[in-house]
Amino acid sequence: MLPTLTTPRLSLRPFTVADANALQQLANDPLVTDTTATLPYPYGLHHAESWIAIHDDLYASGRAMPLAVTTREGELLGTMGFAALSWMHQRAALAYWIGSAHWGRGYATEAAGALVAYGFADLKLQRIWAECFTRNPASARVLEKVGMRYEGCLRNEFLKHGVFEDMLRYGLLADEWYAQFDA
Ligand SMILES: CC(C)(COP(=O)(O)OP(=O)(O)OC[C@H]1O[C@@H](n2cnc3c(N)ncnc32)[C@H](O)[C@@H]1OP(=O)(O)O)[C@@H](O)C(=O)NCCC(=O)NCCS
C-alpha cells in the first residue's frame, strides 16, 4: 500500500481514479510537459487513467512510488514520487511536477523535503538523486533547497522533441541528510 505523508500545507497520498480529471487538467499544459522527461502533450484523460491504474503494480514490484500532492484541504496540485527505485543499491530518483497555476509557492520544495525524509528515515535509502534539464533552473533550485548536491552535467543525455538536452544531476546521501540533525 502506497504511503501517505503530510507536511504543514500538503498531503502526499496515493492517487485514485477520482483524481483522473484533475490530473489531466493540470498535466495537459505545455508549461508543465515541456520540462518533464515523460509526460506527453496533449495529455488526455486516458493518459491520466492508465497512469493511475499502474501505480499499485509499480509500488508492489518495487519500481516506483508515485504520490499525489494535494493541499491539506484536498486540491490536487501535482505529483511527487520516487522513480527508478533500486532496493539492491538502496537508491531512488525524485520525479515531480506541480501545476503551473501553483508555481512559486514552495510546494515542490515542501513535498520533496517530505519525500526525501521518508526515503532516508523509513525506506532506509542510501542515495536519493534527481536530474533536470539545464534550462529548468526552478527544478534545480528545488533540489538545492532540499539539500541535494550538484553532481555534474550529463551532456546530450535526453532527446526531447528532436533536440538533445543536457541534464543536471543532483544527489543526496543518507549521511548528508542525517548530518542536518547534528547539533
Ligand atoms: C520545477 C517545479 C516542480 C517547481 O515547482 P514550485 O512549486 O514552483 O517550486 P518551489 O516554489 O518549491 O521552488 C521554486 C524555486 O525555483 C526558483 N525559480 C523559479 N523560476 C526560476 C528561474 N527561472 N530561475 C531561477 N530560479 C527560479 C524560485 O524562485 C524558487 O526558489 P526560491 O524559493 O529560492 O525563491 C515546477 O516549476 C514544475 O512543475 N515545472 C514543470 C515540470 C518540471 O519541470 N518538473 C521537474 C522535472 S525535473
UniProtKB/TrEMBL annotation:
Name of the protein described by the UniProt record: GNAT family N-acetyltransferase
Keyword Transferase: yes
PROSITE patterns: GNAT
PANTHER family according to UniProt: [RIBOSOMAL PROTEIN US5]-ALANINE N-ACETYLTRANSFERASE (PTHR43792:SF8), GNAT FAMILY, PUTATIVE (AFU_ORTHOLOGUE AFUA_3G00765)-RELATED-RELATED (PTHR43792)
InterPro entries (alphabetical): Acyl_CoA_acyltransferase, GNAT_dom, N-acetyltransferase
Limits of the N-acetyltransferase domain: 10-175
Family: Belongs to the acetyltransferase family. RimJ subfamily.
Domain of life according to the entry: Bacteria
Keywords: Acyltransferase, Transferase
Pfam families referenced in this protein's UniProt entry, alphabetically: Acetyltransf_3 (PF13302)
